[in-house]
Write a structure and sequence with these properties.
The complex is a heterodimer of chains A (280) and B (430).
Chain A lengths: L6 E3 L10 H6 L1 H14 L10 H20 L9 H22 L2 H4 L1 H4 L8 H30 L13 H23 L4 H15 L12 H8 L4 H12 L6 H32 L1
Helix pairs in contact in A: 2-7, 3-4, 4-7, 4-8, 4-9, 4-11, 7-8, 8-9, 8-11, 8-12, 11-12
Chain B lengths: L5 E13 L8 H12 L19 E13 L3 E6 L5 H8 L7 E6 L3 E4 L12 H11 L4 H15 L14 H13 L5 E5 L7 H17 L3 E5 L3 H7 L2 E6 L2 E6 L1 H11 L7 E3 L15 E8 L6 E3 L3 E10 L3 E12 L4 E13 L2 E10 L7 E11 L5 E16 L8 H4 L19
Parallel strand pairs in B: 3-7, 3-8, 5-6, 6-7, 12-18
Antiparallel strand pairs in B: 1-2, 1-4, 8-9, 10-11, 11-13, 13-16, 14-15, 14-17, 17-18
Helix pairs in contact in B: 3-4, 3-5, 4-5, 5-6
The chains are: A mainly alpha (280), B alpha/beta (430).
Chain lengths: 280, 430
């Protein structure tokens, strides 16, 4: 009679697998990682959790001064401050997901080298704890929204705002997908780690965070929307401020890209996970 | 044996590591190397004069391990450094994958390669129990059920709601061990975790471990250099040497085997007639160093600064004019580290002679060494003539305390006189 084994440990094979069932088994661990991140990030800092809002607030103020007041870039008639802030909080969520997940292997080499648990729990926890940042920043945004609305600015919420959870989910998927691909490659090539920081910065300038898409030529608009992050930011702004365009077709494409990137990412990640301790 | 009772079955397990530097570490470097190979040129990233490891030069950390472990067995794994113990445990705990072979596992494996993995200093003891438990594969509910037991066992109840960064290292380790010891895993893999805490706590851990395996029928794999804990905990023992399993069975026999692997004979008298010599002197010698004996010693164990007295018996079939003697010393990594000479010992006449010399080993760091003995002289043209060369003449241990933790492998086996500090001053302000 053939015995049924709980597990078979064998050499790295070439077939790709997602192994999501294993991640599900360790869901408690994901929760605890998120809790740990949240509880410890701003321990022993003077401003504490205030840092969650200081960062987007100052970036927005600087952008308002530089791009709005000095360069006088158009913002679709929406108050510049709100225009930039709406773009920033979405962008910051995406970039946090990407940069945090991109050092999964190198940043956790110590613990990964000692014990086995599904490695994918770490980037997933990163993405979820970034969501908490986003929530806090979003509340801040709503505060400013109410303030500007009361002082008579031309802004209104449209039905697209109801799609916000889907937008955020997509940003998480895309950010994590790119992040784990980079993290898998950095086990061998450390260059990528350096590239991530300034790559994200450059990427931002090819998105509608600063550019008002309505000011572009049709060709320029298409080019901008082919950046998978662009349609999300554009829809976010349309939903909460009632300005800009509704690129649903591009959003569909962007979703497909995100999911493909994530699946490829998980496959590469699982492949690297088996032996990265020997190369890292 | 019935297949049903098997907890772990290891079949022909191999783990291979590539020697040398893997990749340039940068994408640019790898592309450069690849491009150079394509054109048949030298790799621009290879250091000049450095040995080039070809793709086929590999090192087998594990070389075909076959082992079947039944449920409820407590197996000790022993072996010298580099024998492959840690690699085996790493593969078992799935930290890295094997190169060849398979391991069939029945039951949940939990590994304690290092206690306290994933502890976060800012979290309290209680929070860390949950976190560590989850990393080790327990669900929240499982931890909640056991948390009181864990806290009691750790003896840290008073501090359980304090961040662990405020803990003493002993408390930290106690807490960490307690979590691992209360795991619900069927198979426990442990790497010398018991070498922590105070003696009382160590005893408590050992008791807990044997209780776990005996009453609850769990399987324990335990790696240690501490033979006493192996004796206490294990009922079966395997010995690894250079990636191969050389013994499997009774604990006492295994420990005996282990201590015999590299043990050298450091008795004070050595017959040199059949000792290993330089190849051209192996047979047909006209001069033979017959024996060496360190006088007034039971074993060749010297303390630093001690002048050892060696009596050498030699037989010569010709007269040697103005002979000299040299002692060469090899450390345990087989590197020749130093020599000591005794010049102009006089003329040695045909026949058997006795030569007594005093040797001062100071300069060598405390460790184990091998000695070679060479009898040489210079002929009338000033050419060196080595009459007999005994490569493995004797072994000895040098004992003593250093005022610094001397890493012999990296720092070397000879300690020169300490440097003298002349001055230390700030030359550029921050």
């Amino acid at each position: 009679m053939e015995k049924k084994w709980t597990a078979v440990i064998e050499p790295k094979k070439n077939n790709f697998e997602l192994k999501l069932d294993e991640v599900w088994e360790y869901r408690d661990l994901i929760g605890l990682f998120v809790k740990r991140d949240f509880a410890t990030r701003y321990k022993q800092t003077i401003l504490g959790p205030a840092w969650y809002i200081i960062q987007p607030l100052f970036v927005t103020i600087v952008q308002t001064i530089v791009f709005g007041n000095m360069a006088k870039l158009p913002t679709d008639g929406v108050p510049e401050f709100l225009f930039y802030m709406a773009g920033n909080i979405a962008w910051i969520y995406f970039s946090t997901c990407l940069s945090n997940t991109s050092n999964t292997f190198t940043g956790n080499a110590g613990i990964f080298g000692k014990i086995y648990f599904p490695r994918l729990t770490t980037p997933i926890a990163n993405v979820i704890s970034a969501l908490l940042n986003f929530a806090i920043q979003f509340v801040m945004f709503l505060g400013f929204f109410v303030y500007f609305a009361l002082s008579g600015a031309d802004i209104h919420i449209t039905w697209v705002a109801a799609l916000t959870p889907l937008m955020i989910l997509e940003l998480a998927i895309l950010g994590m997908g790119c992040g784990i691909i980079i993290s898998s490659l950095t086990t061998k090539y450390r260059d990528l780690q350096v590239m991530v920081t300034f790559g994200i910065q450059l990427w931002m300038y090819f998105s509608p965070v600063i550019i008002a898409s309505s000011s572009l030529s049709p060709a320029g608009y298409t080019a901008l929307m082919l950046n998978p992050v662009s349609p999300v930011i554009e829809l976010m702004r349309y939903g909460w401020l009632g300005s800009g365009t509704t690129p649903f077709l591009f959003w569909g494409i962007s979703w497909i890209v995100s999911i493909v990137v994530l699946i490829i990412g998980i496959m590469i990640f699982n492949r690297v996970e088996k032996t990265f301790m020997d190369t890292v | 044996m019935d297949e049903k009772d098997i907890a772990i079955k290891i079949v022909d397990l191999k783990k291979e590591y590539r020697l040398g530097v893997i990749g340039g570490g940068t994408l640019q470097g790898d592309i450069q190397s690849w491009w150079a190979r394509k054109r048949g040129k030298d790799d621009p990233n290879t250091q000049i004069g450095k040995k080039v490891y070809k793709n086929n030069e590999r090192f087998l950390a594990l070389d075909g391990i076959n082992l079947t472990i039944n449920k409820g067995e407590r197996i000790g794994i022993i072996g010298h450094n580099g024998a492959g113990k840690s690699t085996l445990l790493k593969i078992l705990s799935r930290v890295t994958a094997p190169t060849e072979g398979k391991i069939y596992v029945d039951g949940r494996i939990s590994s304690m390669l290092e206690v306290g993995t994933g502890f976060h200093g800012e979290l309290t003891g209680r929070e860390n129990i949950y976190l560590n438990g989850a990393i080790l594969g327990m669900s929240r509910a499982e931890v909640s059920k056991k948390i009181e037991q864990i806290i009691d066992f750790s003896e840290c109840r008073q501090f359980i709601d304090t961040p662990v960064k405020r803990y003493s290292s002993g408390m930290y380790v106690k807490l960490a061990f307690s979590v691992s010891a209360h795991l619900d895993a069927d198979i426990l893999v442990m790497d010398e975790v018991l070498a922590v805490g105070d003696v009382k706590f160590q005893m408590k851990c050992l008791e807990k471990m044997s209780e776990v395996s005996q009453s609850e029928g769990r399987t324990v794999l335990y790696v240690s250099h501490n033979m006493n804990t192996i004796r206490q905990l294990c009922d079966r023992c395997v010995v690894l040497d250079h990636g191969k399993l050389i013994f499997d069975g009774d604990v006492e026999k295994a420990i005996q085997m282990y201590s015999d692997i590299h043990k050298k004979d450091i008795s004070s008298f050595h017959d040199l007639r059949n000792a290993k010599r330089f190849s051209s002197r192996q047979d047909n010698r006209l001069v033979t160093l017959e024996s060496v004996e360190f006088l007034n010693k039971e074993r060749n164990s010297f303390s630093i600064g001690e002048i050892a007295t060696a009596r050498i018996m030699l037989n010569s079939e010709y007269d040697i004019k103005d002979a000299n003697l040299r002692f060469g010393f090899f450390d345990m990594y087989d590197r020749k580290v130093a020599s000591s000479v005794c010049l102009h010992i006089g003329d040695i006449q045909k026949g058997t002679s006795e030569l007594v010399v005093g040797v001062d080993f100071s300069g060598l760091v405390p460790s184990s060494y091998r000695g070679e003995i060479i009898l040489f002289s210079y002929d009338e043209f000033g050419v060196l003539v080595e009459h007999d060369i005994v490569l493995e003449a004797y072994y000895f241990d040098l004992e003593g305390k250093q005022n610094v933790d001397w890493n012999q492998l990296k720092w070397g086996s000879v300690r020169l006189g300490d440097m003298i500090k002349k001055s230390l001053k700030l030359t550029e302000d921050e």
